[in-house]
Amino acid sequence: EKGAYPYYMLKEVSEQPAVMRRLLRRYTKGASLQFDVKLLAALKDADQLYIVAAGTSYHAGLVGQALFEQLAGVRTTAFLASEFAYHQPLLSQKPFFIFLTQSGETADLRQVLVQINAKNLPSLTMTNVLTATLAREATFALDLAAGPEIAVASTKAYTAQVALEALLAKALGAAKGQAAAKAFDVEHELSLAATGQQALIDQQSAIHELAKEMFATTRNAFFIGRGTDYYVSLESALKLKEISYVQAEGFAAGELKHGTIALIEPGTPVVAIITDPTTAARTRSNAEEVEARGGKVLRIVAESLAEPGDDLIVPALNPLLSPLLTIVPAQLLAYYTSLDRGYDVDRPRNLAKSVTVE
Ligand code: F6R
Q: Which ranges does the record mark as transmembrane (predicted)?
């Protein structure tokens, strides 16, 4: 039940800190992580991880790619299930497949799972519904523990996927003796993420004002960032387009000058996401290029990199996990834009919660 919330989406956005804490309780015991030893052994044995997903879950998979490579030292690539099914890349010697899916029923993923099961290749499904087809048919399954997600636009499942990927990447990296995994205190980072998300949720009226300033009447919008900020830009654009019908595009900030800057006109809204110290200055200069052409920029910036004039500050967190924070204002920007335009936030046109046909 959505209780006091006007829409499930706002309820589910607000539940994200509790989901982070639930995942910590579910997958940690004291200082150790709790994963099936057989799962860890199968992952250790793999020479490459193939993350297969669609939509929002694919965007969580892109973050997972960075997490598994950097913490566990294993080559990892995220694929769109609908592409992988019919245009399969060359597989490595010992592939391991990770299916990321909120519903566990997405037909595009099932198509891939059937193919890899026919080849007897090992797989894991991370899902919010452990009884679902993709959980039953994969070698292993892990619970996202996000609780039922009712709104069509996925929110808490995305952050649950990123958090669970971080927990598993840490466990795998630790099992492999990776120094980067040892240095990464996943429990501390996820509890910081929960507190930080709450701080952002508490700023929802200010974010509502920003949504009005940026998106009240626009027909298009852009989100830019680099690294994990790029991945969260893709998810931010998807949220805005699916519930507010604004034509939104997320892309790598460095690509702006390779084409998209041609679309910047006076008043064009651009959200710049800046949480990584290695590229912050570059993304800032991209934002200035937008402003020089009259574009309207909203800067979402990590506390440690903040400068006067930044619009929204997100608390400190390892840049690998910053999507857990930066997505929250993006979800709220999309929510309020949809609300102010008078749409049914939870049930956008032409979309179904679970896509069970290819
Ligand atoms: C976006 C959204 C969709 C789903 C996609 C995959 O808000 O809901 O893009 O993320 O259809 O669904 P699952 O995760 O159930 O496989």
A: none
ipTM: 0.98
* Atom of ligand 1 minimally distant from the CA of 106: 16
- Residue 33 scores a pLDDT above 90: yes
Helix boundaries (H) for the chain: 8-14, 16-27, 37-45, 55-72, 81-84, 107-118, 133-137, 156-175, 179-183, 186-201, 204-215, 228-244, 280-292, 323-340
Q: With b meaning 16 or more CB within 10 Å and e meaning fewer, what string describes 152-186?
A: bbbbbbbbbbbbbbbbbbbbbbbbeebeebeebeb
Q: Which atom of ligand 1 is nearest to the CA of 353?
A: 8
Atom of ligand 1 at shortest range from CA of 152: 8
User: Cα of 57 to ligand 1 centre, how many Å?
Assistant: 6
Enter the tokens of residue 15.
Answer: 């539940």
Instruction: Calculate how far, in angstroms, residue 190's C-alpha sits from the geometric centre of ligand 1.
Output: 23
pLDDT in tens, 37-68: 999 999 999 999 999 999 999 999 999 999 99
Determine if the pTM surpasses 0.90.
Answer: yes
Kindly report the protein residue whose alpha carbon is nearest to atom 4 of ligand 1: 55
Q: How far does residue 296's CA lie from ligand 1's centre (Å)?
A: 30
